[in-house]
Amino acid sequence: MADFDLAYSFTKRWEGGHVHHPDDPGGETWAGISRKYHPDWPGWAHIDQVKDVYGSSVWEGEMWSRTDALVKDFYRGTFWGDLGNLRDQTLATVLFDTAVNCGNLRTGKWLQECLCAWDRPVTIDGIVGPQTMRTLTDLEANRPQEVKDFTAALMDLRGAHYIKQQNPTFTRGWFRRLTALRGR
Question: Which of 3, 11, 5 lies closest to 100 in space, CA to CA?
């Protein structure tokens, strides 16, 4: 079964620490958690407290010691879901990292589109519920030789999404991350 800690260690390397870039549609983020989209995440209270004491340029080490467990719990609860039921670690890591980077709904739609393309019809609504997971685990169990190509197709959709974003500030980094993911 897929291991959350392996997926998390990959994603954590790419999400880094504090970012508040004007070209980032998510606004201020810590470890990839957007304050705009997740304003109630409990780690924001720690971040605000430390920024007030240390100033924003010297506090990242302090923040990791205060928030690492919160980040990990948030990622597990928000993006991992039932991925631990998958046999293929690379597929689980790709789905997890894509959800962190591109959102759950978009990732769910891409997963469902790929399942339909693999002659595994599901409703394309972006919600990775029991039907989608059953269909995916059935594909893994009955056509394991196709999982690598299936996973590559998911990454291709992600790459096409990056191009559509027309955000040169982040595009090269997004593709470096995708290349690293392909190398797993």
Answer: 11
